[in-house]
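Q: Sequence in, structure out?
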Amino acid sequence: MNEAINYLQHIPELHRTLLLAGGLTFFLLIESAVPMFSLKYNRWKHAGINLFFTLTTIIVNFAFAVLIVMTSDWCINHHFGLLQWIKMPFWISLIVALLLLDLIGAWLIHFIEHKIKWMWKFHMIHHADTHVDTTTANRHHPGESVFRAAFALIAVFVTGVPVWMLIVYQSLSVLLSQFNHANIKMPEWLDKILRLIIVTPNMHRVHHHFVRPETDSNFGNIFPFWDRLFGTYHITPVEKLHYGLDVLEGRNDESLKEQLSIPFNKKIKTDY
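A: Exactly. Output:
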């Protein structure tokens, strides 16, 4: 276990990049074999713009990485944060860390982005995708990537997690985000079982429906518990789903210039 923790604390960037690329490749292959929807689109063109936003997300996260690691080290050295104040068995502390990092660093900022207009305008790029698949997972405007990185920093400060726990969370977050955005056809019985523990494709794709109340539901990234707890859990039959946003209909979701300009386009109306 000590060797595993030491590896995670010093994991090379190459290994983290391979994890991201490996997850994308794996879920792309599954999508091709058992798709939920027969999406008629140029997959390479569609992937191109989403991978551009994935790259900008990586750059923003890399810029914040040093600050996040410094915050984690400060918390450990000054005995600050919930995990530092409350003594727990090893596995319990890991589970608590994953839950709190997911709540603050993913669910909460996602919920806030849907409630504050200027933040929502940045988040709209993620919802603009009319062909949701595994590459959609990291389709975030660079501005939104900053919001999310800032909340990851807050989550580390509140919890006082060591770096290795943070890396375990981030790795799970990347893989499960790719999974729950994937265009995968899954037996309903299996989806219902998995949905008790993790966010599944059938659960999250409801969030990408083009109108409310579905758009304002199922904010979860790894765990489904927060949506159930805070009353934002919603299930809609997949055959009734329509991807995109009603206020963006008719706009080119594969135009990089147009997508980058959405947050600053006053002609795009929203009542958030």
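Confidence is low (pLDDT under 50) at residues 30-34.
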